[in-house]
């Protein structure tokens, strides 16, 4: 968990353009996954209030859906032509 948080923070604050670009596309999704993991850990420890709070943070992140949609659109494009395959139009 510590490593995940450190990597997310580094991607968010990095001066390297590729890290920043990746964070813009997938950062909310990464943070959402991290909060789900935190919630599961709290729940396993019997810390139900903290687990509920972690799960609530995930639900309140409004950008999660838009971030995953951006990522989905990028993955569908043909890398050579930049266009979507004919079956997905």
Topology, please?
Elements lengths: L1 H12 L3 H28 L3 H13 L2 H14 L13
Helix pairs in contact: 1-2, 2-3, 2-4
SSE order, as H and E?
A: HHHH
Mean pLDDT, as a whole number?
77
Low-pLDDT stretches? none
Biggest sheet statistics:
none
What share of residues is helical?
over 70%
Number of domains: 1
Task: Characterize the overall form.
Answer: elongated
Number of beta strands? 0
| Strand percent estimate | under 5%
Number of helices: 4
Key traits:
89 residues; single chain; mainly alpha
Give your account of this protein's structure.
The termini are far apart. The radius of gyration is 16 Å and the shape is elongated. Helix 1 packs antiparallel against helix 2, helix 2 (17-44) runs antiparallel to helix 3 (48-60) and helix 2 (17-44) packs across helix 4. 9% of the residues are buried. The chain has one domain (2-78). It is built from four helices and no strands. The longest helix has 28 residues, at 17-44. The chain is 75% helix and 0% strand. By secondary structure, it is mainly α.
Q: How would you briefly describe this protein structure?
A:
The protein has 89 residues and is mainly α.
């Amino acid at each position: 968990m510590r490593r995940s948080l450190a990597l997310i923070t580094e991607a968010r604050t990095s001066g390297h353009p590729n890290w920043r670009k990746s964070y813009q596309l997938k950062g909310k999704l990464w943070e959402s996954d991290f909060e789900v993991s935190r919630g599961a850990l709290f729940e396993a420890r019997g810390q139900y209030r903290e687990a509920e709070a972690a799960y609530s943070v995930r639900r309140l992140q409004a950008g999660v859906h838009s971030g995953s949609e951006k990522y989905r659109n990028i993955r569908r494009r043909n890398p050579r032509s930049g266009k979507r395959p004919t079956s997905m139009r």
